[in-house]
Amino acid sequence: MHVAHTAAELAELAALAGKKHKTRAVVMTMGALHEGHLALVRAARQAADEVVVTIFVNPLQFNDPADLERYPRTLDADCALLEPLGVDIVFAPSVDEMYPSGEPLVRVNAGGFNEVFEGVFRPGHFDGVLTVVLKLLNLTRPDMALFGQKDAQQVIAIKAMCRDLSVPVEIIANPTVRDADGLALSSRNVFLSADERTDALALSRALGEAEQVLDEGGPITLALAVGRAVLAEVPGVDVEYFAALDPDTAQSVPDGYRGDVTVAVAARVGATRLIDNVAARVGPREVARATAPATATAPATATATAPATATAPATATAPATATAPKKKRGGA
């Protein structure tokens, strides 16, 4: 495993690797790696010939200087976790390397993503995220980039950017990884006290309750009310939003909506801000229709049927340890 700290070093290593590898995957992180990050790396290792992991605490996406200052930086420990997984290159640039002129004059504007949910509570966050993601895509030039589904709105925004700006990369979302008690893994979990961690379990519990309402055919309004009631029972959880998002646009879905939905939550537990989400569906899932019998009695004129086109396999195959919070209707 090679560690590059400059764009020039990265380009040299990537050029050498490119002579023997056909496909490249990148996993972008801010370090302080946990099992959620490692699950992404394992998926990348299975999907591509070469794996690049970036470690960069991006100041552009922090609207709170204190949050940026205390974000954990553990490069040596991170590299020790990555090497056994077969990572080829770790790109760990400094802020000066990424932004040599200081504040960049040109940034990606996240548009409507700044106006809903995470964009409202973290002003400028998505502009900073999309700017650094685009820059890292340009530097690493991968065929695919893997991100965690825990940051659902971020994944939607990145997919939209790559689609709208014709960035030639496949964006893959890997399932959220959870501890055994249901808490979604996050580098920020280290800031939780024992009591705060117990309180934080209300987030996954609320999502599970809401998901079960939807699984049982209930409407969005009821699912959200049930989830919010779970959160209201825990005084240590200060909720910013508990909402149902369109999984393609991150916009709030209207009453009466039918289809796939992302139920998402953001809350502060003590001084720590946490987010989580679960994929669900409003209304019955579509099933393949049985072929209706033909009404005409005349024989068909064509005698040979063209073979069906083969479907390509999915690129990322590594499962996460857990994909959804446990659903316990009526439980604590």
Automatic annotation (TrEMBL):
<dbReference type="GO" id="GO:0005829">
    <property type="term" value="C:cytosol"/>
</dbReference>
<feature type="compositionally biased region" description="Low complexity">
    <location>
        <begin position="290"/>
        <end position="324"/>
    </location>
</feature>
<feature type="binding site">
    <location>
        <position position="177"/>
    </location>
    <ligand>
        <name>ATP</name>
    </ligand>
</feature>
<keyword id="KW-0566">Pantothenate biosynthesis</keyword>
<keyword id="KW-0547">Nucleotide-binding</keyword>
<feature type="binding site">
    <location>
        <begin position="185"/>
        <end position="188"/>
    </location>
    <ligand>
        <name>ATP</name>
    </ligand>
</feature>
<comment type="function">
    <text>Catalyzes the condensation of pantoate with beta-alanine in an ATP-dependent reaction via a pantoyl-adenylate intermediate.</text>
</comment>
<dbReference type="InterPro" id="IPR004821">
    <property type="entry name" value="Cyt_trans-like"/>
</dbReference>
<feature type="binding site">
    <location>
        <begin position="148"/>
        <end position="151"/>
    </location>
    <ligand>
        <name>ATP</name>
    </ligand>
</feature>
<dbReference type="GO" id="GO:0005524">
    <property type="term" value="F:ATP binding"/>
</dbReference>
<keyword id="KW-0436">Ligase</keyword>
<comment type="pathway">
    <text>Cofactor biosynthesis; (R)-pantothenate biosynthesis; (R)-pantothenate from (R)-pantoate and beta-alanine: step 1/1.</text>
</comment>
<feature type="binding site">
    <location>
        <begin position="30"/>
        <end position="37"/>
    </location>
    <ligand>
        <name>ATP</name>
    </ligand>
</feature>
<comment type="subunit">
    <text>Homodimer.</text>
</comment>
<dbReference type="GO" id="GO:0015940">
    <property type="term" value="P:pantothenate biosynthetic process"/>
</dbReference>
<feature type="active site" description="Proton donor">
    <location>
        <position position="37"/>
    </location>
</feature>
<comment type="similarity">
    <text>Belongs to the pantothenate synthetase family.</text>
</comment>
<dbReference type="InterPro" id="IPR042176">
    <property type="entry name" value="Pantoate_ligase_C"/>
</dbReference>
<feature type="binding site">
    <location>
        <position position="154"/>
    </location>
    <ligand>
        <name>(R)-pantoate</name>
    </ligand>
</feature>
<feature type="binding site">
    <location>
        <position position="61"/>
    </location>
    <ligand>
        <name>(R)-pantoate</name>
    </ligand>
</feature>
<feature type="region of interest" description="Disordered">
    <location>
        <begin position="288"/>
        <end position="332"/>
    </location>
</feature>
<dbReference type="InterPro" id="IPR014729">
    <property type="entry name" value="Rossmann-like_a/b/a_fold"/>
</dbReference>
<dbReference type="InterPro" id="IPR003721">
    <property type="entry name" value="Pantoate_ligase"/>
</dbReference>
<keyword id="KW-0067">ATP-binding</keyword>
<feature type="binding site">
    <location>
        <position position="61"/>
    </location>
    <ligand>
        <name>beta-alanine</name>
    </ligand>
</feature>
<dbReference type="Pfam" id="PF02569">
    <property type="entry name" value="Pantoate_ligase"/>
</dbReference>
<dbReference type="GO" id="GO:0004592">
    <property type="term" value="F:pantoate-beta-alanine ligase activity"/>
</dbReference>
<protein>
    <recommendedName>
        <fullName>Pantothenate synthetase</fullName>
        <ecNumber>6.3.2.1</ecNumber>
    </recommendedName>
</protein>
<keyword id="KW-0963">Cytoplasm</keyword>
